[in-house]
Design brief:
The chain is of the alpha+beta class. The protein contains 5 helices and 3 strands. A hairpin with a 2-residue loop joins strand 2 (72-77) and strand 3.
């Protein structure tokens, strides 16, 4: 007798909107490159500006969006604010890497 495999429950609208919001955050080139840099080490705005060759207002705007989305976290060291990946940010970077590898292969 064959056993029916239970299908996962359909996500709620709130869960779907949360996933869409996170995917939108990593769908921007500057934000995704920022996450890849933060995967390597914590950086402040100046370090990200240098690494990405973009201006401070642009990177600050993207970091604010990523922070509100819960993808990056901050810590203060004197006058500097350093950014790092949150747990969600680590998941986003891993997911993006997997997607890129799947597209290439």
């Amino acid at each position: 007798m064959a056993t029916a495999t239970a299908k996962p429950a359909l996500p709620t609208d709130e869960e779907v909107h949360g996933a869409i919001s996170s995917l939108k955050m990593i769908s921007d080139t500057t934000r995704l490159k920022t996450l890849f840099l933060l995967e390597q080490r914590d950086l402040n705005v100046a370090g990200l500006c240098d690494a990405l060759s973009i201006t401070q207002p642009v990177i600050s705007h993207h970091l604010a969006l990523l922070k509100v989305a819960g993808i990056v976290e901050t810590r203060r060291a004197g006058k500097n604010v350093f950014y790092s990946l949150s747990q969600l940010g680590e998941f986003a970077v891993n997911t993006a890497r997997k997607l890129m590898n799947d597209v290439i292969n």
